[in-house]
């Protein structure tokens, strides 16, 4: 495993291009596009103000940079560096901006969610979508890029509109049986749309492409409900994480629950492997000690390395009781992700912030628990194989695969606290992001096989 030198970053804006050839990073108002293999700067763009959002087009030919404070979006071309586009929403303001799947239209959401403006880069034409709902996940595209679903709110009721992305014609418009629609997400096969209600009510609705209600699922009433959802890549399973610290798995045939995964503070089953991260001090040869110590030696002396031990069950995990009188309590299933081969599901229970739970989807059983020393910030599956990368806000990256688990110290001077990570589409490398820096971790071929 090799690491690049640290490079400057702001706003966690570091993105691999969809074709895997480039890496874009942003520092304040400057955007640098680098070659993934060498990290040589290919293009450098200067925006009008500090960039708050950055996104590649699906064909990797354009980069969108949104400056929400100014209500401005700038688009840059990799093939024609002299060409650029500026979209100014003016007094309407700007709160969100994204690409359409064809990479030739930009969807801007104005302040107060008054409308979504669809700008065409080819014809310079403009279309409007009225009454978009201010919710966490209000726009969803099918994976093939043919259809877009938009959550809407009008006359104190929730609606969903489905548009054809090729000409932005309305295909279906229907109301949803929700109190306060919170999010929508297409199944990867584009046949089913999941819509779920606010956390005050446990309710998830499943709609077909033509707007028919296929099923409604409610696990319980009169308590905080859904916190996170994830479709399996095959579209066969829908995992629903809720505030009662459980994940429920629905099947795609009857849309009934096939199992539920509990996240107790004590792991008792002998069939579950518990990897516990433990600190180990690096060995120092006394001959190398000098006074004053060299900078490299000083950093190695004070950096705590870690390794994984396999714990004997029963194991008690560190449980945090949420503060009851605060909004958005730290409880329930806050993170969910299926592996690319559909075999595993990784979850995080916010009541037990230091643990990652890995479930075997073929056996529908708990397979592994990773108990970290610090709270888990982020995790992401390798897009090519069942391998999970985890970061916990320190200078280490953790990798799990069915073969085992490893903790790797990023060899870097100073404070490098990894709070987010993203895999390259090949699974050969990943970007490790901290608040002010990022680096690229290259995995060797032997490790990947």
Q: Can you describe what's shown?
A:
With 449 residues, this protein is mostly beta strands. 3% of the residues lie in helices and 48% in strands. The protein contains 2 helices and 41 strands. The strands form 10 sheets. A 6-stranded mixed sheet has the order 29-28-34-33-32-31, with no helix packed on it. Strands 1, 2, 39, 40 and 41 form a 5-stranded antiparallel sheet that branches. Strand 8 and strand 9 form a beta hairpin.
Sequence-ordered SSE layout with sheet pairings:
Elements: E1 2-3, E2 7-8, E3 14-16, E4 22-27, E5 30-35, E6 41-46, E7 53-56, E8 62-67, E9 72-77, E10 84-88, E11 96-99, E12 105-109, E13 115-120, E14 126-130, E15 139-141, E16 147-154, E17 157-164, E18 169-175, E19 181-186, E20 192-197, E21 204-208, E22 213-217, E23 226-231, E24 237-242, E25 246-251, E26 257-262, E27 266-267, E28 273-280, H1 295-302, E29 305-311, E30 315-316, E31 333-338, E32 344-349, E33 355-360, E34 365-371, E35 378-381, E36 388-391, E37 396-401, E38 404-409, E39 420-423, E40 429-433, E41 437-442, H2 445-448
Parallel strand pairs: 28-34
Antiparallel strand pairs: 1-41, 2-41, 3-4, 4-5, 5-6, 7-8, 8-9, 9-10, 11-12, 12-13, 13-14, 15-16, 16-17, 17-18, 19-20, 20-21, 21-22, 23-24, 24-25, 25-26, 27-30, 28-29, 31-32, 32-33, 33-34, 35-36, 36-37, 37-38, 39-40, 40-41
């Amino acid at each position: 495993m090799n690491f690049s030198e640290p490079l400057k970053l702001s706003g966690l804006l570091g993105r691999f291009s969809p074709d895997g050839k480039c890496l874009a990073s942003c520092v304040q108002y400057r955007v640098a596009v680098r070659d993934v293999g060498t990290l040589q700067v290919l293009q450098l763009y200067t925006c009008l103000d500090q960039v708050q959002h950055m996104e590649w087009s699906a064909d990797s030919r354009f980069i969108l940079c949104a400056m929400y404070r100014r209500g401005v979006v700038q688009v840059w071309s990799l093939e024609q560096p002299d060409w650029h586009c500026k979209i100014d929403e003016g007094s309407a303001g700007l709160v969100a901006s994204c690409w359409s799947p064809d990479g030739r239209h930009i969807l801007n959401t104005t302040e107060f969610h008054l409308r979504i403006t669809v700008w065409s880069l080819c014809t310079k034409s403009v279309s409007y979508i009225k009454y978009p709902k201010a919710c966490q996940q209000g726009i969803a595209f099918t994976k093939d890029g043919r259809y877009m679903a938009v959550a809407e709110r009008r006359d104190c009721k929730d609606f969903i509109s489905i548009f054809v992305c090729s000409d932005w014609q309305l295909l279906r418009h229907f109301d949803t049986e929700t109190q306060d629609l919170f999010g929508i997400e297409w199944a990867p096969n584009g046949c089913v749309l999941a819509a779920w209600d606010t956390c005050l009510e446990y309710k998830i609705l499943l709609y077909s492409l033509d707007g028919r209600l296929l099923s409604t699922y409610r696990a319980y009433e009169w308590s905080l409900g859904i916190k996170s959802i994830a479709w399996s890549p095959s579209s066969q399973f829908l995992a629903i994480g809720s505030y009662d610290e459980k994940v429920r798995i629905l099947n795609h045939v009857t849309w009934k629950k096939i199992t539920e995964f509990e996240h107790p503070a004590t792991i008792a089953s002998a069939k579950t492997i518990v990897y516990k991260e433990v600190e180990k001090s690096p060995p120092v040869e006394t001959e190398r000690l000098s006074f004053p110590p060299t900078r490299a030696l000083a950093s190695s002396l004070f950096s705590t390395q870690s390794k994984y031990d396999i714990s004997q069950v029963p194991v008690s995990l560190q449980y945090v009781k949420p503060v009851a009188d605060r909004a958005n309590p730290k409880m329930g299933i806050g993170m969910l992700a299926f592996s690319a081969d559909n075999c595993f599901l990784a979850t995080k229970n916010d009541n037990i912030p230091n643990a990652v739970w890995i479930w075997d989807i073929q056996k529908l059983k708990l397979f592994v628990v990773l108990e970290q020393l610090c709270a888990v910030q982020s995790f992401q599956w390798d897009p090519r194989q069942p391998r999970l990368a985890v970061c916990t806000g320190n200078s280490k990256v953790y990798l799990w695969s069915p073969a085992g688990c490893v903790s790797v110290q990023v060899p870097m001077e100073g404070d490098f606290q990894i709070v987010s990570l993203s895999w390259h589409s090949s699974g050969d490398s990943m970007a490790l992001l901290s608040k002010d820096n990022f680096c690229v971790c290259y995995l060797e071929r032997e490790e990947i096989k």
